[in-house]
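Hi all, long-time lurker, first post. I run a small reading group and we've been trying to get comfortable going from sequence to structure in the token notation. Rather than ask abstract questions, I figured I'd post a concrete chain and ask someone more experienced to write out its structure so we can walk through it together at our next meeting. Sequence below, copied exactly:
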Amino acid sequence: MSSSSPDQYLRFVLAGCLNEDYILPISESPQNAVLGGNLPYAAVGLSLWGGAAGLIARADKKFPVSGLDRFKQLGFNLQGIRIAERDLDLRRFLAHQDENTSFDDNPMQHYVDRGLPFPQRLLGYKTRPLTPPDPTAQQGQSIQISDIPEAYLEASAVHICPIDYLSHIIMPSVFRQGRATTITLSPAPSYMTPTFWGEIPGLLSEITAFIASEREVRSLFQGRSSDLWEMAAALGGFGPEFVLIQTERSGYFLADHVSKKRWMIPQYPSLVVDPTGGRDAFAGGFLAGYSENYDPLEAALKGAIAASLVVEGSGVFFALDAMPGLKSARLSALRRLVRQI
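-- Answer (accepted) --
Happy to help. Here is the structure in token form:
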């Protein structure tokens, strides 16, 4: 998707995936054929704390890019949304049982089990393999160097959402050659496996903060360690200043590899309606917070609050309609609950 060059200096860039989402929340109505993917949720997390970014992703001619218009109104730049010549299957299905249990396969059965009509657009839907035959091969949504607008290289802070190994190995180097001093990255599950262990040091060597889930980290370290703090220290040794792990039961673990400080940040006690995009919103909020005063703890708190707002409803833009002052009140409350380990 082509657009004019940014009217002003871009401080932030976000790269990730766009999807046509089919979501069955824990409660509330299904979300069928709606704007989704990790990139929009990361953008919401950034926007909640006053940031706007240049967006990078690949879509195809059938994708309703008009769904991104609200981001344009919020000051985001869409010059980096590239339209592929070939068709891409951008459908994504998620059925949430609870905040820690989700399913992405057999969508028809999940709709039937909930007594819901099955969307015809989901006919023929196939779950993408967790580990593709060659994780290093170019995928349909892989970001290429030519996809990155030159103006985006002026940005000082970049977050890279889960995409694929090829995109993740290319982009940090490209942005480091520009003006980026902060690069955060959330891994793709496809390479967080023991067989890919040897590639991880090179992948993380230019990263400021590595933001992963407990499940991803445990999958990578299978047979090497079972202690999350030990795993965070090992990942920090590959290059990131900060490692953040979203745990299933204990909130967020933050390890500062430089100062050797460690914190436990509880999840804000939200009523979780739809967990979709929570971690991506956390990453966007973290980037906004860290770029403000370079305090990783304060950044993680802002990320946690962004996530808490996103999961309380369904749809990419739900959190942006929260009551004024709510996020600041939650930030103050959560700050008092942090524990340094």
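A couple of things your group might point at:
The first strand starts at residue 12 and ends at 15.
The chain is about 30% helix and 20% strand.
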